[in-house]
C-alpha cells in the first residue's frame, strides 16, 4: 500500500527546485515521482551542496532516496529569481501531465510547489491558479482548503475583492461547497460523521439582521436544508470567537466565507506546517502554502517545512484512498 505521488517543483526560477532537492534527502513512506526539468533540479542540488539522484521509470534506483523523474525540460534556461515567460507552457505541462497520470492511475496523488502566475500569463497562457487548472482538467467543481495540525479551513470564496464577496454567497454556491467539503472529510480523511463549523459573513454573524441579512436570508436556510440531508453543520458562527481552542476542538473543519476571514488565523497558528488542498478532485492534491519566494531562490535559505507537510498529508490521503 505504498502510494506513488507526483511531485511538481513549480516555477523553475523560484525555490521549488530547491525544495524538491531537500525532499530527496529523506526516505518517505510514499514513492515520489518528480515531473520537471532534471537539469534545473541538478543545478539546485549543486547550489545547496546536496546530492540528488534521479532515475527514469523502470531503471534501478541508486538508493532509497533516489527519485523517479518524468523529464519535462524547460526550453529556456533560467536565472535564480528571474521567471522566464517562455517557459510558461512547460511549467503548465508539469501540472497537466501529473494530473493526467493521477486520472490514469499511474500515480495516486500530487504534491505541487509554488507557481508564478504573472510569468505564465506573460507567456500567453491565461492562468488564475493551479486549483482552477486542475478542476478544469478533471471536469469537476472543487473547494480550496488549507490545513495544519491545528485546524482545517475551507473557503466559500477565494481570491475576490471584498466588494464582490457577498454577491457570490448564494444558497446554491454555499450548498455545493459544503457538500464537497463534507464528502472530502468522509472519503479522503476517513472521518465517518464530520462536523463542519460555518462562519457568518458579517460581524457577530449578522446579529439577528442588525449587521447584515446574509445570515438570515441565505446561510441559515441553507444550513437547515442540508441538515435535513444528514450533514452535521454548526453555525453560522461569529468569526471572532469560532477559532477559540475550546470551540475549535469540536469541529473537523471550518468554512470561512472569504479568504482573509479564516486564513490569517490558520497561518498564525502554524504557518510552517500549513498546506493547501484541493477538495473535489478524483485524487488527492496538496500544495505548499507559500509563493515562489524569488528573493530566496539560490540563497539556500528556503524552508522546506511546508513541502514536507504537503508530502505527509498527501501520503495519508492517498493511502486511505488505496485502502478503501
Description:
The chain folds into 2 domains: 182 residues, 3-Layer(aba) Sandwich (Isopropylmalate Dehydrogenase); 139 residues, Isopropylmalate Dehydrogenase, CATH 3.40.718.10. Helix 1 crosses helix 2 and helix 7 crosses helix 8. The mean pLDDT is 95. It is built from 12 helices and 12 strands. Strand 1, helix 1 and strand 2 form a beta-alpha-beta unit. It is globular and about 60 Å long. With 324 residues, the protein is an alpha/beta fold. Helices cover 40% and strands 18% of the residues. The protein has a 12-stranded mixed beta sheet with strand order 3-4-2-1-5-12-11-6-7-10-8-9, with helices on both faces.
CATH class of the largest domain: Alpha Beta
- Give, in spatial order, the strands making up the sheet with the most strands: 3-4-2-1-5-12-11-6-7-10-8-9
State the end-to-end CA separation: 11 Å
**What is the CATH architecture descriptor of the largest domain?**
3-Layer(aba) Sandwich
CATH homologous superfamily (4th level) name of the largest domain: Isopropylmalate Dehydrogenase
Estimated share of beta-strand residues = 15-25%
For the record, the count of structural domains works out to: 2
State the total count of DSSP E strands.
12
What class would the helix/strand composition place it in?
A: alpha/beta
Number of helices: 12
Helix % is: 25-40%
CATH fold-type name of the largest domain:
Isopropylmalate Dehydrogenase
- Mean pLDDT across every amino acid position: 95
Amino acid at each position: 500500500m505504498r502510494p506513488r505521488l507526483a511531485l511538481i517543483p513549480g516555477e523553475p526560477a523560484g525555490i521549488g527546485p530547491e525544495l524538491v532537492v531537500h525532499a530527496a534527502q529523506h526516505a518517505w513512506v510514499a514513492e515520489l515521482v518528480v515531473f520537471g526539468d532534471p537539469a534545473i533540479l541538478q543545478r539546485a542540488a549543486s547550489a545547496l551542496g546536496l546530492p540528488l539522484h534521479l532515475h527514469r521509470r523502470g531503471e534501478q534506483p541508486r538508493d532509497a532516496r533516489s527519485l523517479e523523474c518524468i523529464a519535462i525540460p524547460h526550453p529556456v534556461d533560467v536565472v535564480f529569481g528571474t521567471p522566464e515567460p517562455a517557459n510558461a507552457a512547460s511549467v503548465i505541462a508539469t501540472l497537466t501531465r501529473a494530473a493526467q497520470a493521477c486520472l490514469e492511475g499511474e500515480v495516486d496523488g500530487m504534491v505541487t510547489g509554488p507557481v508564478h502566475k504573472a510569468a505564465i500569463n506573460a507567456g500567453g497562457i491565461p492562468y488564475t491558479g493551479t486549483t482552477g487548472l486542475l478542476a478544469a482538467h478533471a471536469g469537476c467543481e472543487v473547494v480550496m482548503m488549507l490545513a495544519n495540525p491545528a485546524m482545517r479551513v475551507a473557503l466559500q470564496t477565494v481570491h475576490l475583492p471584498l466588494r464582490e464577496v457577498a454577491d457570490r454567497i448564494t444558497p446554491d454556491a454555499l450548498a455545493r461547497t459544503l457538500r464537497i467539503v463534507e464528502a472530502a472529510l468522509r472519503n479522503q480523511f476517513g472521518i465517518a460523521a464530520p462536523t463542519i463549523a460555518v462562519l457568518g459573513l458579517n460581524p457577530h454573524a449578522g446579529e439577528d439582521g442588525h449587521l447584515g441579512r446574509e445570515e438570515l436570508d441565505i446561510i441559515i436556510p441553507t444550513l437547515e436544508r442540508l441538515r435535513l440531508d444528514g450533514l452535521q453543520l454548526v453555525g453560522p458562527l461569529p468569526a471572532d470567537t469560532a477559532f477559540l481552542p475550546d470551540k475549535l476542538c469540536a469541529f473537523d473543519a471550518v468554512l470561512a466565507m472569504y479568504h482573509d476571514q479564516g486564513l490569517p488565523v490558520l497561518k498564525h497558528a502554524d504557518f510552517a506546517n500549513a498546506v493547501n488542498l484541493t477538495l473535489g478532485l478524483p485524487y488527492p492534491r496538496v500544495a505548499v502554502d507559500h509563493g515562489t519566494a524569488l528573493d530566496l531562490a539560490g540563497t539556500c535559505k528556503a524552508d522546506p517545512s511546508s513541502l514536507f507537510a504537503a508530502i505527509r498529508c498527501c501520503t495519508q490521503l492517498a493511502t486511505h484512498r488505496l485502502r478503501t
